[in-house]
Amino acid sequence: MSHARQDQVSDKLFSAAPRATDPATTVWDAFQCTRQQYGSMPFLHIPAYCSGGPVDLTYDEMGTAVEATMEVYRRAGYGPGHHVALWLDNRGSFYLHWLTLNALGATVVPLGAELSVAEARLLLLRADIDLLVHLHDRRSTAQEAATAEAGDGLSSIATPDDFAANFLPRASTPRSAGARVDAAAIVFTSGSMGQPKGCVLSNDYFLSFGRWYRDLGGRCELRPGRERLITPLPLNHVNALAFSSMGMILTGGCIIQLDRFRSSSWWKTVNETEATVMHYLGVMPAMLLQLPRQPDERTHNLRFGIGGGVRAAHHSAFEDRFAVSLIEAWAMTETGGAGTLSTHVGPRNIGSGCIGRPSPRYAEATLAGENGAPLPDPLCPGEGELLVRASGDEPRRGFSSGYYKDPDATAAAWQHAWLHTGDLVRRDAEGCYFFVGRRKQIIRRSGENISAAEVEAALGVDQRIQEAAVVAVPDELREEEVFVCVVASADLTGSRDLAEGILAAAAARLAYYKLPGYIAFVTALPVTATQKLRYGTVAQLATALIRNQGPELFDVRDAKRNLRSKH
Hints:
Layout: H1 3-6, H2 27-38, E1 42-46, E2 55-58, H3 59-76, E3 83-87, H4 92-104, E4 107-110, H5 117-126, E5 131-134, H6 139-145, E6 156-158, H7 160-164, E7 185-189, E8 197-201, H8 203-215, E9 228-231, H9 238-249, E10 254-257, H10 266-272, E11 277-281, H11 283-289, E12 304-308, H12 312-322, E13 326-330, E14 341-342, E15 354-358, E16 363-368, E17 382-390, E18 402-403, H13 407-413, E19 414-415, E20 418-427, E21 433-438, E22 442-445, E23 448-451, H14 452-459, E24 465-475, E25 479-488, H15 496-506, E26 518-521, H16 535-548, E27 553-555, H17 557-566
Parallel strand pairs: 1-10, 3-4, 3-5, 5-6, 9-10, 9-11, 11-12, 12-13, 25-26
Antiparallel strand pairs: 1-2, 7-8, 8-18, 13-14, 14-15, 15-21, 16-17, 17-20, 19-20, 20-21, 22-23, 24-25, 26-27
């Protein structure tokens, strides 16, 4: 279908179909309901070349495995109130333990594959973890992360092999007992002040995400029992954990879960797995467009892709070359599907940064005025901070339940009965929203949110650094890259050896994607009269340094990639 034809899809689809209902109250309930109808149909496929592959499980096979694993957890005493961290990457064991723990009423806390020991330990502490389930080859790292500096144990640890051997550390009284009624998961997201915040996600959050996707229609209609959704995105983020998984669970579809994105084999995998839907981040179209043309890049079964962040210059080029419509959408961990905007119907405004509109069945959106309050006319064109809430009388329904043990941050996010997103958007006369930028000091790299303050704090322990300021700079492939301006200690002079030494030291404290891609040595950082950093000026300086390629700038992206391969 041509772009013009797609953009003529009637806006009536926004509210045409009534919201579907189902009896499920938990993720496991929803899985069981689908299992009754689609038990022999494929639920999860992981190709053989992926870590942990091959995996091919039907709904019945996964359900049977969950029921067996539940008995191991039950005998060890795990249930409601317990927090269990899953350091299992994008593997079949993640889905097994996630569904099992949901069935038992426990809370899962997914950890990213590339977390350092220090980062993992911080999240284990903040989330009150009772048990850490980890990959077998990560045992020493997990043991170190689960042990405090003073030697006090933070949590018990186990591997999937321990479950197979029917061995699991006995559960103690959960440290979070009584802290909340329904917490299916705690998913950590970057905070603008540099401290990771744990979003508490209820079962209603997961079900709302799946129902939103199921009911979306328009360009993103999901056909019951027929879709095969391919995603390389990590299960410690809600795109894969809630968006992909719940969309398929509520429609009897199959999840094709890759361990990571490989551009060179993407179209081969799409064809071999018979994928019908793809989930993407902006870095994926950018990398695929760089490939030499391949004979199979248009002979696929993909009906659409849905994601966010495709660069303006890539959007139309990708669709024309690969014959796949990229449906741009906007969401946050805090909003889930209940507060998502998308271009599933109405004008797509390709190449303009358009993120569409909310589906009225689920969400409302507006702009904040200069005083932070919502503007009186929700349809008036303008620019401001994006505010979202659920439709109806419960503005927080389907959203995150708040930040774990951080009521102040939760209250700050919710004001005037609207979630303040921190993102600047523009709204046109047709009610479409266009992404402009971020108020928060967050760097968006390949779909990962990176707190500049967190990176600065990690660099601050290096004795060779007197001061450091971290900002985002544009990156052709990854949307943004981490740029750091460094004031070196008095006895040091900026050099490539020093830059790569700083990078290597930071790698012990930060995940790969958070490491600087550029390091520039400056004599002083711009500050205000009250000695606060002028981040706007730092960002301008970073842009000028990259443009002029002066001797004080060191591009360490290759060294960064080498560190990842060694890891």
